[in-house]
Design goal:
By secondary structure, the chain is α/β, with parallel strands linked by helices. The protein has 12 helices and 12 strands. The longest helix has 23 residues.
């Protein structure tokens, strides 16, 4: 069933579990995400970035997810991830998205409020929910790169004022995660102290971006079959669980799926060099991605929460 964020996130916040957000750009990735959600009876958020939309085409990717979501036995949200303008949010709403993110975190507080409020007013008229962001994560998301020195933790008091002034439905915050596979050196650390303060001040669901686990086993598998992916430090499961316990209701995952897909394709081609059927090659990678999604769902605590 196709729903918006307000059908799944308030329940997650109250029940202290996280709903998984997983990015897609094609049929097989979407199959893996929804297959995992249905197998574990979990609510799920299927998201596309602006770059994924450019790759697949807005009509193609939206209708693909919508069609599959209507047939699913679990709640499915079709969500725009990191929308940068009012126009892209409006376009996604026109094509059936049930939720959009407007990312004004690169703007001043005043300008962020202005664009977010505009998107909220338009989206709410169409029954669509809005995720916004305050604070700035380090790392790479599509073509947007933020160095560690430019990352900014979310200020709890600013977060409260931002929510009051914009009316957004969910808020992405910066507490120490980073986008992309090539994480910065050092032991991953989340500012749970900041999270607790924000959760006390902000009563809407909170979102954690850049939360891929980037398991060493997936990195090793990519490299085993011809890859050159550097060892990366993802966010350990214990920290994700701690964040959920203290107020995070939505957790974003993208990098893990990319790595699993790449590892799956490389492993299958190296061990089955005679095969030239793309259904078998990509089907193997799809199965690996579904395992990743299932693992994340269980880590987030959303199994059997549909």
């Amino acid at each position: 069933m196709l729903v918006n964020l307000n059908k799944v996130l308030p329940k997650a916040r109250k029940g202290r579990y996280g709903v998984g957000h997983f990015n897609t750009s094609n049929f097989e990735i979407t199959q893996a995400i929804l297959g995992a959600a249905e197998s574990l009876n979990a609510p799920i958020i299927v998201a596309t970035s602006e770059k994924a939309i450019a790759y697949a085409g807005i009509e193609n990717i939206s209708q693909l997810v919508i069609t599959m979501a209507y047939k699913a036995k679990v709640p499915v949200v079709l969500h725009l991830d990191h929308g940068r303008t009012f126009d892209i949010a409006k376009t996604c709403i026109k094509h059936g998205y049930t939720s959009v993110m407007i990312d004004g975190s690169h703007l001043s507080f005043k300008e962020n409020v202005k664009i977010t409020r505009r998107v909220v007013r338009y989206a709410h008229k169409h029954g669509v929910t809005v995720e916004a962001e305050i604070g700035r994560l380090a790392g790479i998301e599509d073509d947007i790169q933020v160095t560690k020195g430019d990352a900014v933790y979310t200020d709890p008091e600013e977060a409260e004022r931002f929510v009051q002034q914009t009316g957004c439905d969910a808020l992405a915050i910066a507490i120490g995660t980073s986008h992309g596979a090539h994480k910065f050196k050092g032991k991953p650390k989340l500012r749970i102290d900041i999270l607790k303060k924000i959760a006390q001040e902000v009563k809407i669901p909170l979102v954690l971006h850049g939360a891929s686990g980037v398991k060493v086993k997936w990195i090793n598998l990519v490299n085993k079959f011809g890859g050159k992916l550097e060892q990366a430090r993802g966010v350990p499961d214990k920290l994700i669980k701690q964040a959920v316990k203290n107020g995070i209701s939505k957790i974003n995952t993208d990098t893990d799926l990319r790595i699993a897909f790449t590892a799956g394709v490389r492993e299958y081609l190296r061990t089955n060099p005679e095969v030239f059927d793309p259904r078998k090659i990509i089907g193997f990678a799809r199965a690996m991605m579904q395992k990743v999604v299932e693992d994340r769902i269980q880590t987030f605590g959303s199994k059997n929460k549909a």
